[in-house]
Design goal:
13 strands; six-stranded antiparallel β-sheet; mainly beta; Glutamine Phosphoribosylpyrophosphate, subunit 1, domain 1
């Protein structure tokens, strides 16, 4: 698979929706993840990321404008021991609770499907990072409707063992803007990662569509120590 220019890919897509990037820095020392949200409606755009323990959650920027919290208020990032879970919905909790009961990432998601927001039927995208004894691997998942038909759910899991330095994978909910919004197709895109968390945060935020971007989370985790740095950028301030 060809490595894409992540900045160009974001810049040329006005509405990828919500997106997850997971990978490893070029120097091989850090595990990297990023999660962003975008919005077209007032309800979707009225959000910020806030820290919540070792993870984050979404929160209404203006509580008076919040109409339906069901698909917009959730914890995108939670940490379970040496595992970091990143998702675009409340399936973060499903994965956390399942893996806490010794289920696998994939088994934990068996109880979930795409979002019930027809006619889009937004895919549920999820990632899991596992760091232990100086080793690192990750997996990504997408649960999607059958080309917009909610009668069938299609489940895909992609596992990356011993990921290569300087390489990551990017999955997002929609191929591009549209009505209805077309679900992501294919396997996660191979993209480059930067050594600097601030430069990578800037690359992502700068190239997300100015009108539609809402919030961005980036975390770099030291593979040897488990210590991490986090950046959060909110359009609403």
């Amino acid at each position: 698979m060809q490595k894409l220019d992540l900045a160009k890919d974001l810049r040329e897509n006005s509405y990828p929706g919500r997106g997850i990037v997971i990978g490893k820095t070029p120097d091989g020392s850090k595990a990297v993840t990023a999660y962003f949200i975008m919005g077209r409606s007032v309800n979707s755009r009225n959000r910020i990321f806030v820290e919540d323990g070792e993870g984050i959650r979404t929160q209404a920027f203006d509580p008076a404008k919040l109409t339906d919290p069901s698909l917009v208020i959730y914890a995108p990032v939670r940490v379970l021991g040496n595992k970091t879970i990143v998702t675009n919905g409340d399936q973060t909790d499903t994965i956390y609770e399942g893996m806490d009961r010794q289920l696998t990432f994939e088994q934990s998601l068996r109880s979930r499907e795409f979002e019930p927001d027809g006619p889009n039927f937004t895919p549920r995208i999820s990632g899991i990072m596992h760091i232990e004894n100086g080793g690192y691997n990750y997996a990504m998942s997408i649960l999607k409707s059958a080309d917009g038909d909610p009668a069938s759910c299609r489940r895909f899991t992609f596992a990356y063992e011993k990921p290569l330095a300087g390489e990551g994978h990017f999955i997002h909910t929609y191929m591009h803007d549209g009505n209805p919004l077309p679900s992501f197709e294919g396997e996660p895109k191979k993209v480059g990662i930067l050594d600097s968390i601030d430069e990578f945060t800037d690359l992502l935020w700068t190239n997300l569509n100015e009108d539609n971007k809402v919030s961005l989370f980036v975390r770099y985790i030291d593979i040897k120590t488990g210590n991490y740095e986090t950046r959060i950028v909110n359009k609403n301030r």
